[in-house]
């Protein structure tokens, strides 16, 4: 019970901080909205509708998943900086389990990603992407879960890092290839074998695919791109999540104390 | 309350131990000060005792709980005022307090102040009254002065009624009036709660108020005792005299078997009643009579410079000041 309260209060703090940081809120919302607004129509104009797929919708679903997943992953990285700053010293000396701290942080950053998801969904509607109410309702919990998945990935990346700087550098290196291999902007099911193998282990890919599983699965009249079945994606995501969380927390706690 | 035995910490990739086998103990309700130059290992020691850093060797307990195997119980029993401010700037004072209270399991989580249990809200009101912050308690920390922030941190650190309050250079960077009010506040807290206090500081006048002082340097204990003991042991009181007839005075002092320092005025190492007797006995008319009482700062500087000397010759270190810790501890 104490641990649950602690998880919630740590998550609460991250969310409140976002709401009070207007500049960050603005920046967080602008980039993904810009991507959806500009990139989808631009690609559509350039490539038409290959195989009858609406490119704007395709990019929209991709950016939606990528934003939420990456935002949470990046947010968790701030745990490294947090250690040296303000309130987080407090968190680390509290009797709360280290696992609760990490889970609270991941949950908080996942919540922080949600306003971005809401903004992208809204813009999607404005530019004419068809999103049924049922899809909307289903997407919100799914996106929250995907953000938690992203947070777990962030935790694993930062678990061996000593400073925010090195964490950020490694992060860029890990994120950029995933942008393309996760199928955010372009389909990935005709990749050459070597790239396909890398794409198969890119965690962001599963966030994108699961979002499309929901989006196209619940609106069967829209022409769907090639994606793996929801069950397969869900199983892989679940496995990856547990591995990231377990390994990430264990490594993080060890790095923390054995400086 | 605090038992530390042969504690060692060597940071990864470090050439030497940051904390090199220190031992000491602190009794319940005691005000204990850990003193030492920059890099002596003070913050490292506090980090280990508050379980945020794993020791390399040795062991320590707080209120009977092992800092490694019972870390969570130890954290429940200690409060810490960090060297760097640890209030969340983006939150209000009340939110900072609330988060602490929930993290330490005092109250369940509720998403807003109004929804928190009545007992909590009453506690916040009392605390705001105590700090004279009735109106600002719901204002962001950003609007607080640094002295006010420190006070709030102390109040927050005591919220869960810790057995030991660790203060890591709590007044660094504060101006003199703020330091003074902070110490008044701490004295009140101590009188009312009987909390054991573990302080590290650079300000010797603050350490002077401690029941006991432990001086460390290069990660080793170089001296330990009450402020009065340290002063008495390490710098003797002395008498400064001078006369128009300096040569005569020098001869007379030598005749009486008194060792002098300086070419006039002369410093004679005598104290108390002996100083009085010495003065009475001197026949040469004196032009200057002064007594020199060492300050804690004199004692401290002497101890540290002596330690620097022995550190340069490792063979001598063990035989001089290297191990007063364990010896004193055995006596307790």
Word description of this protein:
The model of chain A has no long low-confidence stretch (mean pLDDT 85). Chain A has helices spanning 2-20, 22-47, 55-82, 86-93, 98-126, 133-158, 164-181, 193-201, 203-217, 230-257. Chain A is mainly alpha-helical. Chain A has one domain (2-257). In chain B, 39% of the residues lie in helices and 22% in strands. In chain B, helix 5 runs parallel beside helix 6 (176-193) and helix 8 packs across helix 11. Mean pLDDT of chain B is 83; it is low at 311-332.
Summary of the model, kept short:
The complex is a heterodimer of chains A (259) and B (332). Chain A has one domain (2-257). Chain A is 80% helix and 0% strand.
Q: Output the number of helix runs of chain A.
A: 10
For the sheet with most strands of chain B, the description reads: 6 strands, mixed
The percentage helix of chain B is 25-40%
| Beta strands of chain A, count | 0
Q: Report the major sheet of chain A.
A: none
Mean pLDDT of chain A: 85
Question: Taking Cα atoms only, what radius of gyration of chain B do you get, to the nearest Å?
Answer: 25 Å
For the largest interface in this structure, which chains are involved and how many residues does each contribute?
A-B, 31 and 35 residues
Q: Give the quaternary arrangement of the chains.
A: heterodimer
Keywords:
heterodimer; A: 259 residues; mainly alpha; 10 helices; 80% helix; B: 332 residues; alpha/beta; Rossmann fold; Alpha-Beta Plaits; 2 domains; six-stranded mixed β-sheet; four-stranded antiparallel β-sheet; 13 helices; 14 strands; 39% helix; 22% strand; disordered C terminus
């Amino acid at each position: 019970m104490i641990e649950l309260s602690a998880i919630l209060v740590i998550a609460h703090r991250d969310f409140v901080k976002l709401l009070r940081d207007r500049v960050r809120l603005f920046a967080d919302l602008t980039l993904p909205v810009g991507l959806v607004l500009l990139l989808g129509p631009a690609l559509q104009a350039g490539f038409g509708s290959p195989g009858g797929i609406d490119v704007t919708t395709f990019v929209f679903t991709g950016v939606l998943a990528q934003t939420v997943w990456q935002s949470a992953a990046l947010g968790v990285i701030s745990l490294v900086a947090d250690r040296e700053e303000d309130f987080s010293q407090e968190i680390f000396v509290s009797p709360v389990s280290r696992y609760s701290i990490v889970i609270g942080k991941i949950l908080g950053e996942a919540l922080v990603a949600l306003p971005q998801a809401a903004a992208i969904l809204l813009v999607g509607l404005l530019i004419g992407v068809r999103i049924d109410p049922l899809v909307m309702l289903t997407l919100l919990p799914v996106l929250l879960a995907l953000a938690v998945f992203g947070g777990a990935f962030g935790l694993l990346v930062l678990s061996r890092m000593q400073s925010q700087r090195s964490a950020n550098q490694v992060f860029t290196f890990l994120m950029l290839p995933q942008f393309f291999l996760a199928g955010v902007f372009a389909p990935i099911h005709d990749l050459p074998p070597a790239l396909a193998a890398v794409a198969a282990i890119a965690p962001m890919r599963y966030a994108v695919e699961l979002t499309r599983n929901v989006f196209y699965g619940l609106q069967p009249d829209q022409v769907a791109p090639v994606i793996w079945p929801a069950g397969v994606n869900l199983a892989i995501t679940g496995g990856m999540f547990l591995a990231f969380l377990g390994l990430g927390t264990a490594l993080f706690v060890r790095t923390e104390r054995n400086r | 309350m605090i038992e530390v035995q042969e504690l060692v910490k060597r940071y990864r990739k470090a050439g030497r131990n940051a904390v090199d086998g220190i031992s000491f103990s602190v009794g319940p309700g005691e005000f204990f000060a850990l003193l030492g130059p920059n890099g002596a290992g003070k913050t490292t020691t506090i980090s280990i005792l508050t379980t945020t850093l794993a020791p390399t060797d040795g062991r320590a307990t707080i209120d009977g709980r092992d800092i490694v195997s019972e870390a969570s119980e130890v954290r429940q029993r200690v409060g810490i005022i960090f060297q760097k401010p640890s209030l969340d700037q983006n939150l209000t004072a009340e939110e900072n307090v609330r988060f602490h209270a929930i993290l330490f399991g005092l109250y369940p989580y509720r998403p807003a102040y109004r929804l928190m249990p009545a007992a909590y809200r009453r506690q916040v009101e009392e605390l705001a009254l105590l700090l004279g912050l009735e109106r600002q308690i719901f204002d962001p920390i950003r609007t607080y002065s640094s002295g006010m922030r420190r006070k709030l941190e102390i109040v927050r650190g005591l919220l869960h009624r810790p057995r030991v309050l660790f203060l890591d250079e709590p007044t660094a960077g504060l101006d003199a009036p703020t330091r003074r009010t902070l110490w008044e506040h701490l004295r009140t807290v101590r009188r009312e709660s009987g909390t054991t206090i573990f302080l590290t500081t650079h300000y010797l006048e603050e350490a002077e108020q401690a029941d006991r002082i432990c001086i460390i340097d290069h990660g080793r204990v170089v001296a330990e005792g009450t402020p009065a003991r340290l002063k008495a042991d390490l710098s003797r009181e002395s008498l400064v005299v001078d006369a128009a007839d300096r040569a005569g005075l020098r001869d007379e002092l030598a005749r009486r078997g008194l060792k002098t320092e300086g070419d006039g005025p002369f410093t004679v190492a005598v104290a108390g009643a002996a100083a009085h007797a010495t003065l009475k006995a001197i026949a040469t008319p004196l032009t200057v009579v002064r007594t020199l009482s060492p300050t804690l700062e004199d004692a401290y500087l002497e101890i540290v410079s002596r330690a620097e000397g022995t550190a340069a010759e490792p063979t001598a270190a063990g035989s001089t000041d290297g191990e007063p810790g364990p010896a004193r501890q055995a006596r307790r």
